[in-house]
Design a protein that fits this description.
The complex is a heterodimer of chains A (255) and B (296).
Chain A: E1 2-11, E2 14-24, E3 29-33, H1 40-48, E4 55-60, E5 63-64, H2 70-76, E6 78-80, H3 93-103, H4 111-115, H5 124-132, H6 148-161, E7 166-170, H7 178-193, E8 197-201, H8 205-211, E9 214-219, E10 222-227, H9 229-234, H10 236-243, H11 248-254
Parallel strand pairs in A: 3-8, 3-9, 6-7, 7-8
Antiparallel strand pairs in A: 1-2, 1-4, 4-5, 9-10
Helix pairs in contact in A: 3-5, 3-6, 5-6
Chain B: H1 3-37, H2 44-62, H3 66-89, H4 97-119, E1 124-125, E2 134-137, E3 140-143, H5 144-166, H6 168-178, H7 180-185, H8 190-216, E4 218-219, H9 223-238, H10 243-264, H11 266-283
Antiparallel strand pairs in B: 1-4, 2-3
Classes of the chains: A alpha/beta (255), B mainly alpha (296).
């Protein structure tokens, strides 16, 4: 469904992403892992359109996204969360969701009528998302006032509010405890059960190995392995990549 | 302190506060544009005045009634604001903020020259409303035309607040100003929000220009520099990016200006206003409502 074809991105002379091809299937939870600096974040930014690839293309259900602006990709069904949370801090929880739900509908036709219509953050979809994220009691609070965990939940809810086909999660477990990670895993499965395909970038190996259907491993911008969690864990190249000066090897073996 | 001095003082203060609402509008315009783009548009005051000249054109050519002239001034300034956006901001590289800043300085000079050319550098009569009427509160006389200026500026601010806090457009604008990247990923076309912000700021500036001219009954191209400088002083005092700050800053500058006028005369007035600016820049560079909030 989401495919990357021979995707490369050069920054000056550095190949941040080097000829990466991936196919993520409808309805799966796909993990993208790799040591720090291996090109995971660049890959996400290529998919969402912050960067344009030097070569290669990104397609969603056969539609070529490569030349589209970020907001156009959102309307095609791509949504993401950020490693460092980026909420609209001075808007309320419900308004954060409303912006995401309606942002991509603001097209040329009738935009005046829609843009000047008052209220609106009380739609049934928003109520449902608030319940799904257990933020219903906080709906009229400013996003700034939420706890860290609540902010992470709101960010995921906001990504879901644009009604995406594929959701890109950029290290959602960063800063989370083991317990939180457990809840997060359930939440990610619940997202998948809503019919949203998930691309998960994560350092916490336990989480990745536990919930993904398939995994791809990047190292120095290249894809060095792809397969089921079990296959990837047995892969010699992957072990070598993580052994190459990183403590993460331990996590990989014991996960 | 004798009674008449106190009366003069209160009179100056009242006049200054009423007229200060035009400065507040200009300050809000600067702040709005800075809020969504994090860039300063130095052509803003000149664009506002150019819009006022559109209204003046209708007045001189068709002898249009005052309200039509004011409305045309506001809409004209909104459209010129859009032109400024496309010429100086839309296509200048994001990574070089200096490019758009210098482009806007160029636009400021261009617009000033245009207005000087069209008006032959001469002041022209501009319609005012209620110019004969006065409201007498004891020994304090409030000029009707100033009261009208105040009323229109307050209505403009109220409309802006309604737009920003009660409409989807306002939500989108605030979202872009808080997190431009996340807003784009929510599907908001930030270029369109930026363009609309220039139009809205332009309409406010045109209203301020029209009311400045209506308060004195005369429109002159030399006001452009004054509007720009006063607007910048207002945002420095209020804190760039803060709308309440711009309102308080505008009233403060309006009041201070009139009191310096009373105490030191017209030739020294602006010297003291500038001193006030330096005082703020030194002691409180973030302004009254300056926020330490960061974003991308």
């Amino acid at each position: 469904m989401l495919t990357l074809e021979n995707l490369s991105k050069l920054f000056g002379g550095v190949r941040a992403v080097d000829d990466v091809s991936l196919t993520i299937r409808e309805g799966e939870i796909f993990g993208l892992i790799g040591p720090n600096g291996s090109g995971k974040s660049t890959t996400i930014n290529l998919i969402t359109g912050l960067y344009t690839p030097t070569t290669g293309k990104v397609t969603l259900d056969g539609h070529d996204l490569t030349a589209m602006a970020q907001h156009e990709r959102t309307s095609m069904g791509v949504a993401r969360t950020f490693q460092n949370i980026r909420l609209f801090g001075n808007l309320t929880v419900a308004q954060n969701l409303w912006v995401a739900q309606n942002g991509h509908e603001q097209r040329r036709a009738h935009f005046l009528a829609r843009w000047f219509k008052a209220g609106g953050e009380h739609g049934p979809d928003i109520e449902e998302l608030l319940r799904f994220s257990q933020l219903h009691s906080k709906r009229d609070l400013q996003a700034n006032a939420l706890s860290f965990g609540e902010m992470r939940r709101l960010e995921m809810a906001r990504a879901l509010a644009s009604n995406p086909r594929v959701l890109l999660l950029d290290e959602p477990a960063a800063g989370a405890s083991q317990e939180d990670a457990q809840l997060l895993a359930e939440r990610i499965r619940a997202v998948r059960d809503r019919g949203v395909t998930v691309l998960l970038i994560e350092h916490m190996m336990e989480l990745v190995m536990g919930i993904t259907d398939r995994i791809a491993v990047l190292n120095f911008g290249r894809k060095i392995a792809e397969g089921s969690p079990a296959e990837v864990q047995m892969n010699e190249d992957v072990r070598a990549a993580y052994l190459g000066g990183s403590h993460k090897n331990e996590e990989l073996v014991h996960a | 302190m004798d009674y008449f001095f106190i009366i003069d003082f209160v009179q100056s203060l009242a006049d200054g506060l009423l007229f200060g609402t035009t400065y507040a509008l200009i300050g809000i315009g600067f702040t709005l544009i800075f809020g969504v783009m994090r860039k300063l548009n130095l052509a803003y005051g000149a664009a506002a005045l150019a819009g006022t000249y559109v209204g003046l054109g209708l007045f001189l050519t068709f002898n249009a009634p005052p309200f039509v002239v004011f409305l045309a001034s506001a809409i004209g300034a909104g459209l010129i604001g859009l032109v400024v956006y496309y010429c100086c901001f839309r296509f200048t590289p994001e990574a070089h903020p200096m490019a758009s800043l210098l482009a806007s300085v160029g636009m400021l000079l261009f617009l000033e020259e245009m207005m000087t050319h069209v008006s032959h550098g001469m002041p022209h009569p501009y319609p005012s409303v209620l110019s004969g009427a006065t409201l007498e509160l004891g020994d304090i006389w409030i000029r009707g035309d100033l009261l009208f200026v105040f009323g229109i500026c307050v209505v403009a601010m109220a409309l802006l607040f309604w737009l920003l806090y009660r409409t989807p457009l306002g939500l989108a604008t605030r979202a872009v100003s808080q997190q431009p990247r996340a807003a784009q990923l929510c599907g908001i076309d930030s270029a369109r929000v930026n363009a609309l912000t220039f139009v809205i700021a332009g309409v406010l500036g045109g209203t301020a220009g029209a009311m400045t001219a209506a308060a004195v009954g005369i429109l002159s191209p030399i006001i452009a520099t004054g509007l720009t400088v006063k607007g910048l002083i207002v945002v420095v005092i209020g804190g760039l990016g803060s709308i309440p700050g711009a309102i308080i800053g505008g009233l403060l500058v309006g009041a201070a200006e009139n009191i310096f006028l009373l105490l030191r005369g017209v030739t020294e007035r602006d010297i003291y206003v500038m001193l006030l600016l330096f005082l703020f820049l030194t002691l409180r560079p973030g302004g009254l409502f300056g926020s330490a909030a960061t974003r991308d």
